TrEMBL record:
<keyword id="KW-0812">Transmembrane</keyword>
<dbReference type="InterPro" id="IPR024419">
    <property type="entry name" value="YvrJ"/>
</dbReference>
<protein>
    <submittedName>
        <fullName>YvrJ family protein</fullName>
    </submittedName>
</protein>
<keyword id="KW-1133">Transmembrane helix</keyword>
<keyword id="KW-0472">Membrane</keyword>
<dbReference type="Pfam" id="PF12841">
    <property type="entry name" value="YvrJ"/>
</dbReference>
<feature type="transmembrane region" description="Helical">
    <location>
        <begin position="6"/>
        <end position="23"/>
    </location>
</feature>
């Protein structure tokens, strides 16, 4: 029984951290995509 708890503790924590980081990065990527699109539109309007 202790082995099962130990495996869950060792695997569960990295999975939780990975999910947290993926959720954070997704929001930042959305903002970056919007900024790139705005920059592209600005460059095209100057031409």
């Amino acid at each position: 029984m202790n082995e099962i708890v130990e495996v869950i503790a060792n695997i569960g924590f990295p999975i939780a951290i990975s999910l947290y980081l993926l959720i954070r990065i997704e929001g930042k990527l959305d903002g970056l995509t919007t900024s790139i699109n705005n920059l592209s539109n600005t460059i095209n309007s100057i031409k």
